[in-house]
Amino acid sequence: MSEAQQAAPSEDVRKIWVGFDLGGTKMMAVVFDEKFEVLGRKRRRTREKNTKEVSLRRLTETIQLALEDAKVDPAGLQGIGAGCPGPLDLKRGVILEAPNLGWKDVPLRDHLSSEFKCPAEICNDVDGGVYGEYVRGAGRGARCVLGVFPGTGIGGGCVYEGRIFHGSRSSCMEVGFLQMATEGPAAGVGPVGTLEGLASRLAISGEAAKAVFRGKAPKLAALAGTDIGSIRSGTLSKAIEGGDTVIEEIVRRGAEQVGRGIGSLVNILAPDIVVLGGGLVEAMPKLYVAEVQKGIKRNVLPSLKDCFQLKVAELGDYSTAIGAAAWVRQKQSSSWVCKPSFVN
Amino acid sequence: MSEAQQAAPSEDVRKIWVGFDLGGTKMMAVVFDEKFEVLGRKRRRTREKNTKEVSLRRLTETIQLALEDAKVDPAGLQGIGAGCPGPLDLKRGVILEAPNLGWKDVPLRDHLSSEFKCPAEICNDVDGGVYGEYVRGAGRGARCVLGVFPGTGIGGGCVYEGRIFHGSRSSCMEVGFLQMATEGPAAGVGPVGTLEGLASRLAISGEAAKAVFRGKAPKLAALAGTDIGSIRSGTLSKAIEGGDTVIEEIVRRGAEQVGRGIGSLVNILAPDIVVLGGGLVEAMPKLYVAEVQKGIKRNVLPSLKDCFQLKVAELGDYSTAIGAAAWVRQKQSSSWVCKPSFVN
Fold first, then answer.
1. Which fold has domain B3-131+319-333?
2. Which of A33, A338, B29, B337 sees the fewest Cβ atoms within 10 Å?
3. Model confidence over A128-166: pLDDT tens digits?
4. How much is the ipTM here?
5. Which residues from B are below 8 Å from A294, CB to CB?
6. Which residues fall within 8 angstroms of residue A131, CB to CB, at 6 or more apart?
């Protein structure tokens, strides 16, 4: 045990929080100070197909390594927040299922809390990312922030008056499953004509692969061929730069659909700030944002069109870690009145 | 001044709240006790084209008449809540515009507060209705209630963790302006392919009038002719009972679209209860609800399909008055922390 750990906790111990981002391919622990400055971090591959015990141990170690990297007294640890994929039971703090990780019924909150002797919370990873953008990013302090992240799927989240808007089993803001058309492709899962079916990176890659197959996209053919698994956001961007106008058309069409979905959602949620993030936006921000703006204009009500700003996400890979750390802090600090006394 | 008013307010005075529903054709004031039992009421026509002063006086009188009807000591008045149409400025308590009333920039909250010497609040009328259903109706006490009211347009509202979910200028949950199709009719206003364009009572009446014109709906022809202004929800219901199968088909199609819109919204908001109300539902609950269920099933994500219940609104004409009265009460009673201290 280090000297710092042996010392009795005093008022002088620096207060720290840990944010954890549990992804399908990587996990990351970040140590923050009171102002959400990064004091230390550790990123590791998430190994699939381990037993629950081995996976949890790997997770614990990652946090310990991040704390060591931060070179602070662990006695100052105020809380750990973890952003997790898959359906969660927020009340019990359990990951119900994370198919990419092979996890089922993992009581992550209690595990973290007992391992590190501090409060812990879990939240959906996308929600965590939007909360991070609310706390220190593009949506800072806004009354209502809608986050939309077009990637393999299309993720979304909403922070309303300082709280993550969530469903009873955590999952909500399934922006990808807005119904956009009466017919059309499906997203691989779910009904046809959804936003995800029309405009996710997977949908766009599918269209692009067909263009390659037809001989219409020579640059993309050279870069990736017809395997949609190889057509990533960066590949699409390079093909467009290389002169594949058909690919540019496909990406623009997808982005406009995302904009139309956002326009619809603005009519529902009336956010003050819409944060746009994810791989496609990062790979080609200018082209993508312009088309999204066009789509929004098409669908948003005149009375709402001047009520919000569209902004590009600012925190990149750190958004979920910041948001999860802020979320455990928020849960501790506020009196959480969810029902007026006169309602029963 | 009555004896009751002269007496010094004491602990024994019965606590009362007033809910006010300001509609385009009628206004209604209702006096409630602590348990939201109705103690008195007054309903009057809303006269259009009066000056702001005359209209406000009429409104004040309506509340005074309801208080008289209740036969209670007005000294017990704890607050007045008013549900209002049109865009509102909630912070300042001002009706920005109510075209049906010819009102513009009416500071209703301060007017009520100074006339009756008590706290006052205004809210959107549909929001008030959903809050009423949350407080004492079909959505009682649920964590998240989505209300959908297909009528001339399609109104919507959401109560989340005890609060009305609202936009910065009040208007939000514009369920009628969900984008449902890439093409299709408009709602008279706004973009094409919206839920309101496809499935409002006005959209359905338009379809029905065309069927009459084509000679396909003899019963409706006799009841209303081809004037869409005369084809109300009750008329449609009677035509269906009378054997106009084409009209039944039209109504069913509209209801299914509403269900599909609700399915989309469940994917976004993950409510625990969806409250369905409005003229079409009231006129033919069985037929309408069955088709809505069908539409929901088509669009809702498998992971969310067992997370909510669809219920028919219970409070009818009283929902907005109850909700508005409860809203002013809620605003008084809770500490309204909207931003964590660490966000700036």
1. Nucleotidyltransferase; domain 5 (3.30.420)
2. A338
3. 999 999 999 999 999 999 999 999 889 999 999 889 998
4. 0.87
5. none
6. A123, A157, A159, A164, A323, A324, A326, A327
